[in-house]
Amino acid sequence: MAPTPLLAAAALMAVAVASWSLAEGAGDLRQPPVAQGLSFDFYKRSCPRAETIVQEYVKDAVRKDVGIAAGLLRLHFHDCFVQGCDASVLLDGSATGPGEQQAPPNLTLRPSAFAAINAIRDRLERECRGAVVSCSDILALAARDSVVSTGGPSYRVPLGRRDSPHFATVQDVLSGLPAPTSTVPSLLAVLRNINLDATDLVALSGGHTVGLGHCTSFDDRLFPRPDPTMNPDFLSKLKQTCPAKGTDRRTALDIRTPNAFDNKYYVNLLNRQGLFTSDQDLYTNAATRPLVERFARNQQDFFNQFGVSMVKMGQIKVLTGNQGQVRRNCSARNPGTVAGDLSWSSLAQTVGEAAAESLGF
């Protein structure tokens, strides 16, 4: 029997409501466009097991030391926010000056995370029979796999980045990486310069659901006067770990589930238990509070948006094609490369690799 007009109308209304609900729940979940030169299957022919090798290494490393997950995730953030996602944070300093690692915001990056990237690079070189996978792609994949290894969402990573032959200045690092003492307006001012918005800010800040914070990054909230936005019990516990200003100790960024990638970071903010000013102000500020509340209520919403924002962040000012190089050692520019530019030999190598990739070699 054919449906009556009333039933048909009701069915259409149900579909419309369901569609609206999905869209409303999804928020800004339109996938960001893939940057020119990147693709999801970039190494399909030249090194088909590339993603598997990174995944297996990270999974094993996190099993042995869960702390390395936060270390690898943070490396990707600190790379992309300064000069773009070009692996410049991995470069050692040289005669031309100190590298990005010597800038104050990067002094607490984990040495084990740097070592892991080079170890993955060595495995890929053996598997791919040469310098095929860039260090910047390794950073992006290792960050994703660190999130997955601690219970977080998986997301597809566009690949094909090239590595920069030069690092940023210390001043570039200081201006590109927001301090943990930052409030939402100053955070948004920094993010606008790299085409990220308030939704990205709140979602990416959720990376603080794993890892540790140094006392010196938040002790201004404890001394000389306690921050009135801080939960009193939380304040008391922090003072036990950090009894005086300048104490060289660390504490969990997420007091509820410090080693699990979940939405408890946002639950902490609702309870005024955010560690940094840059964390807690996401809830204090009226512009970002609704997103904090939404992610605290619905972990899947957070996971979905985190994946979208990570893909968006991972494409900031990427070098592709004949730009940059594929480093043979993630800590040093390739031999023959002039600081700040590419030599003819390095350029020839990069062009040759691009040609090999297009031919499937």
Automatic annotation (TrEMBL):
Keyword Aminoacyl-tRNA synthetase: no
PANTHER family recorded: PEROXIDASE 16-RELATED (PTHR31517:SF48), PTHR31517
Protein's name according to its UniProt entry: Peroxidase
Function per UniProt: Removal of H(2)O(2), oxidation of toxic reductants, biosynthesis and degradation of lignin, suberization, auxin catabolism, response to environmental stresses such as wounding, pathogen attack and oxidative stress.
Binding site for Ca(2+) 1: 79, 82, 84, 86, 88, 100
A Gene Ontology cellular-component term: extracellular region
Localization, UniProt: Secreted
Entry cofactors: heme b; Ca(2+)
Cysteine pairings via disulfide bonds: 47-128, 80-85, 135-330, 215-242
Principal location class: secreted
Lineage: Eukaryota, Viridiplantae, Streptophyta, Embryophyta, Tracheophyta
Alphabetical GO biological process terms: hydrogen peroxide catabolic process; response to oxidative stress
Annotated positions binding heme b: 208
